[in-house]
Design a protein that fits this description.
It contains 5 helices and 29 strands. It is mainly beta and 446 residues long. The strands form 8 sheets. Strands 3-4-5-6 form a 4-stranded antiparallel sheet, with no helix packed on it. The protein starts with a helix and ends in a 5-residue tail after the last strand. GO terms for molecular function: structural constituent of ribosome. This is Meiotic recombination protein rec14.
């Protein structure tokens, strides 16, 4: 018994000390060793009662750690959420309910969905806009739909002034107005059905009305009219056909006075000329030019009634031709992606206007400003460029849309500013596959 006493005291202390002290103070490995020593068969007949644990009223270790953790959390300041962020979170769920609400568009007066752009104002036409015709106080638009629309350009919002319904059943692809101070009384339109109509402004109602319609070709549509151009005095109309001819009509007498043939020109086959895709009349009424699918450009003298120049320089289809206001230069462009400039005094190719790049986009439209210093071009990639002809460089490029541009036109200069801070600088309009009108103005000006 004397030998067993030290062992029993050692075992008793080893059994309850680990319950009071943390593991770092008393090693659990040591306790296991002592227990194994007690299990040795030193006294097989002796049964020793070892207490399981002694309760001293001390808190348990999880409770101590929990209290310490709560103190640490209270000591660290919490991140505060601003009032604006809380308000935004509150309004986020409510904003979704307003999407289905309807309201009245302040611009056109039509119904639209709240928080959405008005579809009537955003889409000027239900189809692609193919042509523009500027007048001193308005701009006329034509598209694949049957109606023509007239917009007022004397107000800063460019409101819709007139809609000519059922003008062309199959849609309209070309418009023409005269350029000058005393113009805007007459414009011409060509539909996809080959019908050509002349419209005149009613001085009383200030709206355009149908004056007369040119007789259509009855030979199974052969020689249908494509491009048109109106003289500066609004008395003559030039029309191109699909077989390469150019007809000149007297609008006052309502008869055809001249026909120019291009069947003997470059690329003619089977006795017919190449498709005449573009036409223009000089402002002095002396010259007529046409651009063709085979890349040819022809210039005709209206007084002599014959061809004076057959211009080269473009090997691909020519989609736009334009005389300068002084009739000294001619610009032509198309699928080649460059603008060729010609001198009308001698009929020489004097230069090209082109943007850097390996694959230039097709040029679909050209237009000179009133002074002849700048040339406007519209491209198939949606870019509209302003060229300084004197410097031979592009001075501005706008690419608000990736859709094709079918027509670009300078607007006549105004005598007063349309709105505060707008100035009286140059303005132009672009339209195309986006079905909307884009108006641009010069950033500086008086």
């Amino acid at each position: 018994m004397a030998m067993a006493a030290p062992v029993m005291r050692m075992a008793s202390s080893a059994s309850f000390l680990p319950r009071l002290l943390p593991p770092t103070v008393f090693s659990t490995t040591r306790a296991r060793v002592l227990v194994r020593q007690l299990s040795l068969p030193l006294f097989p007949n002796l049964n020793i009662a070892i207490p399981v644990g002694i309760s001293l009223g001390l808190p348990s270790l999880p409770e101590v750690l929990e209290g310490i953790w709560e103190g640490i959390l209270k000591a660290v300041p919490k991140k505060k959420t601003s009032h604006m962020k809380k308000r935004h979170r509150q309004m986020a769920g409510k904003a979704l309910k307003d999407v289905t609400a309807l309201c009245v568009c302040p611009a056109c007066g039509g119904m639209k969905r709240m928080h959405y752009v008005c579809p009537t104002c955003a889409s000027t036409h239900p189809a692609d806009i193919f042509s523009l015709a500027p007048a001193p106080s308005a701009i006329i638009t034509a598209s694949g739909s049957s109606s023509l629309r007239v917009y007022d350009t004397t107000q800063p919002t460019y409101p819709l002034a007139q809609t000519i319904s059922n003008a062309h059943k199959l849609g309209c692809h070309h418009l023409a107005t005269a350029r000058g101070p005393q113009t805007g009384n007459v414009f011409a339109s060509v539909g996809f059905g080959g019908d050509v109509k002349i419209w005149r402004l009613n001085p009383d109602s200030k709206e355009y009305e149908l004056q007369w319609e040119l007789p259509t070709v009855g030979d199974s549509g052969k020689g249908d009219v494509w491009a048109i151009a109106l003289s500066a005095d609004e008395n003559f109309l030039a029309c191109t056909t699909s077989d390469g001819r150019i007809h000149v009509w007297d609008l006052t007498a309502k008869e055809k006075i001249q026909t120019y043939e291009t069947a003997g020109g470059r690329g003619a086959a089977g006795g017919g000329g190449s498709f005449a895709m573009a036409v223009d009349l000089s402002r002095d009424g002396r010259l007529t030019t046409s651009g063709h699918e085979n890349g040819a450009v022809y210039v005709f003298n209206n007084d002599a009634g014959r061809m004076v120049y057959s211009l080269s320089g473009l090997a691909k289809p020519v989609r736009a031709v334009a005389f300068s206001p002084g009739c000294k230069k001619l610009a032509a462009a198309g699928n080649a992606g460059i603008i060729a400039l010609y001198d009308m005094e001698h009929g020489e190719h004097v230069g090209n206007l082109s943007a850097p790049g390996n694959r230039p986009s097709w040029i679909t439209s050209l237009d000179w400003n009133d002074t002849g210093d700048y040339l406007l071009s519209g491209q198939l990639d949606g870019k509209v460029k302003v060229w300084d002809v004197g410097r031979g460089a592009c001075v501005a490029t706008h690419s608000e849309t990736d859709s094709a541009l079918w027509c670009v036109r300078w607007l006549p200069p105004t005598e007063r500013a349309l709105g505060p801070g707008m100035g009286k600088g140059e303005r132009f309009c672009a339209a195309g596959a986006s079905r909307s009108l884009s108006f641009y103005r010069e950033a500086t000006g008086i």
